[in-house]
From TrEMBL:
InterPro entries: Class_I_gatase-like, DJ-1/PfpI, INH-QAR. One of its GO terms (biological process) is regulation of DNA-templated transcription. Pfam families: DJ-1_PfpI (PF01965). This is DJ-1/PfpI family protein. Residues 1-162 form the DJ-1/PfpI domain.
Length: 209
């Protein structure tokens, strides 16, 4: 079972690594990181690199397509080469998935028109501009397309996907293996719940004070 994860400059590392950490436990899983060319691809803010195993041109099919997001995704919504590759992978995939603003690339490829989907809350308007119907749910399953909300929700998506691919017991065993038992110290994980001071700091830019 080939799981292809495309990488691009200024992706968000957890969007890719979170689901990877879950899906690698699936029986017969072969995870391939793909990029314009093999070699290291840096996240935002370019401190961490993941090495791509193959170039887009080398991968002509996959069972699972998992598109991460990140600031770099917005600049790729008109990249015909990448969008064409996503369409080709989707044609033969069993599952096509995204995390965070990775759904913008699925939408730009024409895969989400008229479908409920999710993304990072700050990109909901962009998602809808491509014809998708934004929903603030953490994970949205639409037949073979599964979209996840912002960053950390990729782990939830991957566990949901694991249950569909294998079974619930397998997914629960993976959850136990990675000790995924969220107990956040603050109730600030969505715009509806975050205090105004946190929203103001985010708007100014975290770490720029």
């Amino acid at each position: 079972m080939r799981i292809a994860i495309p990488l691009f400059d200024r992706f968000t590392a957890l969007d890719a690594v979170g689901p990877y950490e879950v899906l690698k436990y699936l029986p017969d899983a072969e995870i391939v990181f793909v990029a314009e060319e093999p070699g290291p691809v840096r996240d935002v803010p370019k401190w961490l690199a993941i090495s791509a195993d193959a170039a887009f041109a080398d991968i002509d099919s996959c069972d699972v397509l998992l598109v991460p997001g990140g600031p770099g995704s917005r600049g790729l919504v008109k990249d015909d080469k990448l969008l064409g590759w996503i369409r080709r992978m989707h044609e033969g995939s069993t599952w096509t998935t995204s995390v965070c603003t990775g759904s913008l690339l699925l939408a730009a490829a024409g895969l989400l028109k008229g479908l409920p989907a999710t993304t990072h809350w700050a990109a909901s308007d962009v998602l809808e501009s491509f014809g998708a119907i934004y929903t603030p749910e953490r994970v949205v399953v639409q037949e073979k397309i599964v979209t996840a909300a912002g960053v950390s929700s990729g782990i939830d998506m991957a566990l949901t996907l694991a249950a569909h691919i294998a079974d619930q017991t397998t997914a629960e065993a993976i959850q136990l293996a990675i000790e995924y038992d969220p107990q956040p110290p603050f109730d600030a994980g969505s715009p509806a719940k975050a205090p105004q001071a946190a929203k103001d700091l985010l708007a100014r830019g975290i770490g720029t004070r």
